[in-house]
Design goal:
The structure holds 3 protein chains of 3 kinds. Chain A is α+β, with helices and mostly antiparallel strands. Helices cover 31% and strands 29% of the residues of chain A. The chains are: A alpha+beta, B alpha+beta, C alpha+beta.
Chain lengths: 241, 243, 265
């Protein structure tokens, strides 16, 4: 048993890539990178590279999908064919559609949708390169793009993966850690100021006690991501003189 | 549930005379020259204050504290607090004068693109101008429905010239307090300039190319101080540069 | 109707006026290209990726090599397959869903430029009986500001020049490891033109695309030969106008191919 544990986190508390269990991979965020979009964001997170664009609020086509009381959010998550090891079929798969659905719900909780009845806010995220945690990287970028587009929101949406590998709880798992025999991998996104959970998905077996500890780590990690998002948004406007 | 109540309380504040004072305050703060000290930029969800103040635009109340709902600048006085956003789609308000482009013709009217959520409708009238596709017009917003559809009237057609699109939140800066910036632009270029509240700007004659450059510069630097003087200098320096 | 931008259509009217007076709206010469920037290595999992900016038009190209069964009529050759997806994130005009006819046209024309330009040696892509490499060349526009054809062509050619071959062990791909580079026999690039009024302009911007009556895309390879044509748009072309485009293209393509070759160093 001890040998297995040493595989993922060593005695000095270092993971396979040298990080501590509560440490995030390197994150880089650029705001406003697509001129023809209302709002946009390019984000790098470890090996993950995603680009997000927001159009709208705009008319809903087809019209019958419109909600007369609030805006609807249409979220499209897709991965480029070359963003994964084996070329991905460009046609959207079930995973893409499921991720799009839960991500839309997360943004709906954050945005003041009643201000724009009868319209749609269209969010498109394309994954260009990947190594675990793409749906959270995508959602993190999407929420920055929404702010860049001037969509009023209660809060940004920030998140991180949280789970377990080699018996140790950790945040922001890499692909190698996700493949651990005892791996638990959860995608978590919150509204950072109120700590409300707006996205949660999990795979693996974990006790309720372990989960509560993992959730605490995940929330702390998500708040660190929020600081990166905040800095990138402010930098776009205070940087130029 | 919480969110619905918060939104309603913002709208309640907008009703009545207090709303007028507040509109003035918002207009003032977005039009006025910024002090030498840069105003604070905030992001959605950022805490602004836990003091009791009247809620202006783009702020909301939660558990006794006031937060921003947008990426923008804080505008605060003793009594009011609001955030002036850096981006946003144009939301029509009654009384606004907008510049529009005819995007479609129906048998009884025209669809006008006014840079908002959807195209708006103008009825064909025997007294009104006969318009064709891509014609440029100015119009007054008379009524706005719950769905943000604008009732447009007082339609005037503009001939020639060109249209520049700017972010609607920058329009107050392009006009300036008491039209101060607009005057600088007109004098520095000798162009006809019509600024729609919706972010479409019609420019004709004079040094139109320079006017476009200057307006784009205002858009980029809207949040910096001493802008009117710097635009004035910019126009003088570049006077000789013609198309 | 979709989300067509009325402002661009309006600009289209201005373009015709301006071109008839001998000027382009962005002050370029009629045969001049916008600024080109090429960056490499966007995805660490691809055999090659490039990001090209042509003015404000931005495209990312990725190449993946997978093992497939050779076609029965060419049992000792590999193959290539091209696709373009007009992502809605690149323009309010692009809608979600399966590839539109515009996406398909761009893909097919870029494919012809590479294939008929003799760039890939398909015999070289043969592995062993029943196995050969398929080169998947996939394009994703990131921002549309006119002339996706040439932006894709430049990105595709540049990616091919940088492509490495996945390592094979007993005929099976070892993911994450590569051995050797893709060998190219020739380099080719598309040159696109718009006919506006009676003038031919190179590298049309988005406003110029709205104003054109015809467009013509010509592929040139490094030998200075033509290897593909595509005429698009509702209008017609005279033989003279086509000649003009060919002459301009001969000059520009040399310059473009040089930029592409330099990007792989």
């Amino acid at each position: 048993m001890k040998e297995k544990e040493a595989e993922y986190v060593n005695r000095e508390g270092k993971r396979l890539d040298g990080r501590k269990v509560n440490e995030l991979r390197a994150i880089k965020i650029e705001v406003g990178v697509i001129p023809s979009a209302a709002g946009s964001c390019y984000l790098e997170w470890g090996y993950n590279k995603v680009i997000a664009a927001v159009q709208g609020p705009r008319e809903v086509l087809p019209r019958h999908m419109a909600d007369p009381y609030k805006a609807i959010i249409r979220y499209t998550y897709r991965m480029a064919t070359f963003s994964v090891s084996e070329r991905k079929n460009p046609k959207p798969g079930k995973r893409d559609i499921e991720i799009s659905m839960v991500s839309a719900k997360a943004l709906e909780k954050a945005a003041f949708l009643e201000k724009f009845p009868n319209t749609a806010i269209d969010v498109f995220v394309q994954v260009l390169d990947s190594n675990a945690g793409t749906r959270i990287a995508a959602l993190t970028a999407a929420s920055v793009a929404m702010a860049d587009a001037g969509i009023p929101m209660k809060d940004l949406v920030s998140g991180t993966a949280v789970g377990r590998a080699g018996g140790k709880l950790m945040i922001d798992l890499t692909k190698e850690e996700e493949d651990a025999p005892d791996a638990v991998d959860a995608a978590l996104a919150i509204l950072p100021n109120s700590e409300e959970i707006v996205l949660l998905q999990m795979d693996g077996i974990i006790s309720p006690k372990e989960w509560r500890e993992a959730l605490k780590m995940g929330i702390e990690g998500s708040k660190k991501v929020y600081e990166f998002q905040k800095e990138a948004l402010k930098k776009k406007y205070s940087g130029d003189k | 549930m919480d969110k619905a109540i918060e939104v309603k309380s913002m709208h309640a504040v907008h009703a009545g005379k207090e709303a007028e004072k507040e509109e003035e305050f918002n207009a003032e703060s977005s039009q006025s020259e910024l002090n030498e000290k840069e105003k604070k930029i905030v992001v959605p969800g950022e805490l602004l204050t836990d003091k009791k103040k009247r809620l202006g635009e783009h702020v909301y109340l939660r558990e006794g504290k006031i937060f921003s709902d947008s990426l923008g600048f804080v505008s605060e006085s003793e009594a009011f607090i609001s955030v002036v956003p850096l981006q946003g789609v144009y939301t029509p308000r009654a009384g606004d004068v907008v510049v529009g482009i005819i995007s479609d013709e129906k048998h009884n009217g025209y669809l006008v693109d006014i840079n908002s959520f959807y195209a708006n409708f103008i009825l064909k009238s025997s007294r009104g101008p006969v318009l064709k596709l891509n014609a440029v017009v100015s119009a007054k917003v008379f009524k706005v429905s719950e769905l943000n559809e604008a009732d447009l009237g007082q339609v005037r057609q503009f001939y020639g010239g060109e249209i520049l699109r700017v972010s609607p939140v920058k329009v107050p800066r392009i006009i300036g307090k008491n039209n101060s910036m607009l005057e600088v632009l007109r004098n520095g270029t000798n162009s006809n300039i019509m600024v729609g509240r919706n972010g479409y700007v019609w420019i004709k004659d004079g040094n139109a190319a320079l006017a476009v450059k200057a307006i784009k510069k205002i858009e980029m630097e809207a949040h910096l101080s001493n802008l009117t003087n710097r635009i004035n200098d910019f126009l003088i320096e570049n006077k000789e540069v013609n198309k | 109707m979709g989300y067509e931008n009325v402002l661009w259509k309006l600009q289209g009217d201005k373009v015709l006026e301006s071109i008839n007076a001998g000027k382009r709206l962005d002050a370029r010469k009629f045969d001049e290209y916008r600024k080109i920037e090429i960056r490499k290595d966007i995805s660490h999992l691809a055999e090659a990726t490039t990001q090209v900016k042509l003015g404000n038009t931005e495209v990312i190209c990725g190449i993946k090599l997978e093992i497939g069964v050779p076609y029965p009529d060419s049992p000792e050759e590999g193959s290539m397959s091209t696709s373009v997806e007009l992502l809605p994130l690149a323009s309010p005009e692009f809608e979600s869903g399966p590839p539109s006819e515009n996406a398909i046209e761009i893909g097919r024309v870029v494919d012809r430029s590479i294939r008929e330009g003799g760039c890939l040696d398909f015999k070289d892509l043969f592995v062993e009986e029943g196995k050969s490499w398929i080169a998947f060349i996939d394009f994703y526009p990131i921002n549309y500001d006119g002339n996706l054809f040439d932006a894709c062509s430049i990105a595709g050619m540049s990616a091919l020049l940088n492509a490495k071959i996945p390592k094979l062990e007993d005929g099976v791909i070892v993911r994450g490891e590569w051995k050797g580079k893709l060998k190219l026999k020739n380099h080719a690039v598309l040159n696109s033109f718009a006919k506006i009024g009676n003038s031919i302009v190179a590298d049309p911007s988005i406003a110029e695309e709205k104003a054109l009556t015809s467009r013509i895309h010509i592929s040139f390879n490094s030998d200075g030969n033509l290897n593909a044509f595509q005429k698009g748009g509702p209008g017609s072309l005279t033989a003279n106008e086509l000649d003009q485009a060919i002459d301009t293209g001969l000059k520009n393509s040399k310059h473009l191919i040089k930029i592409i070759e330099e990007s792989s160093e």
